[in-house]
Amino acid sequence: MNPKSLCFTILIAILAIFISRFIIDPSPHFHKIIIDSSLTLSSSSCIIMKFIPFDFSDFCRHRKHPDKGKPVSVCDDFPPNIPPPETNTTLTLCVDQNGCCNFTTVQAAVDAVPNLNMKRSVIWINTGIYYEKVIIPKTKPNITFQGQGYTSTAIAWNDTANSANGTFYSGSVQVFSTNFIAKNMSFMNVAPLPRPGDVGAQAVAIRIAGDQAAFWGCGFYGAQDTLHDDRGRHYFKDCYIQGSIDFIFGNGKSLYEDCQLISMANQVAPGSKSINGAVTAHGRASADEDSGFAFVNCSIGGTGRIWLGRAWRPYSRVVFALTSMTDIIAPEGWNDFNDPSRDQTIFYGEYNCTGAGANMSGRAPYVQKLNDTQASLFLTASFIDADQWLQSYNS
């Protein structure tokens, strides 16, 4: 796929997101139709030229003044206080793909952050789709990605397990440092939607492998295996997470609050008992590991017939509390990875959830209906020891 075709694919995918946010109710099936169409269209360069006759670099860089009719730089309207001056506690770097900042790529700004810097390094990212693979190494702690809205600013790439030599390495963004923060932006993997039976099609939007990471108002978009919550303590607030199979997976200890979890799994025939997706696949391998996923005040919707989670590792631990669930959740709710020996060691709990998918009468026998005391351990940020590290949204 050539660069113009790739740009078109991402443009259509983002367009689907924008339309679903501002015009219609979010529908992953609608997203899927648009993305499938974009992939089909992008395979033909003549069709691309028909739909995109502009040189977008010139089109985005200049525009006509409404009064004088002469071209002016798009940078004329750039916020005058960006980036703010460096302080004793904060360094701000600015990224704009039109050249209005010191950096045109996010990775270049990351590379410019001093190693082992103790200041908070805020990378302010202007509106746009940044088509690049971004890696934040262990030597770059205390970085913040500040976008302009999760439907306005996105980092996108298209690696798969096949192209990246493993699912773990397919992430469009990979975070290995501590104290990472992201606000008001999206992370996308725009690899083609896998077909039934595809091997190596896993495509991660972000891998979080550093301790103490927080995400506010972020979007995570992929076809499957979207969010690799690999290891460490993490916090997600008001986020939108989309995928199909194990689309939140890993061995992190993470709290998800007020998040939308949207399945893109294929529709199933009425009355069918087939399962074609799962929200989580937690990877706790032993009782000694202090990890687990807690979802509080979230919502689950979309398409397909899915499990809340499946036991990727024998001590998998996931709790859903005060969460609304549509009827896409299978009655048994969970899966032991087809290994009954894990039934004695996994911890799957539900607490005061609502909706057609929250009926626990048909749940698998190892699923726990938590009481107030049991659930209290998972309901607040103390689950991830947030008082020791989590910074407020406005910091």
TrEMBL record:
InterPro entries: Pectin_lyas_fold, Pectin_lyase_fold/virulence, Pectinesterase_Asp_AS, Pectinesterase_cat. Its EC number is 3.1.1.11. Keywords: Aspartyl esterase, Hydrolase. One of its GO terms (molecular function) is pectinesterase activity. Residues 94-386 form the Pectinesterase catalytic domain. It catalyses: [(1->4)-alpha-D-galacturonosyl methyl ester](n) + n H2O = [(1->4)-alpha-D-galacturonosyl](n) + n methanol + n H(+). The active site is at 246. This is Pectinesterase. It comes from Gossypium hirsutum (Upland cotton).
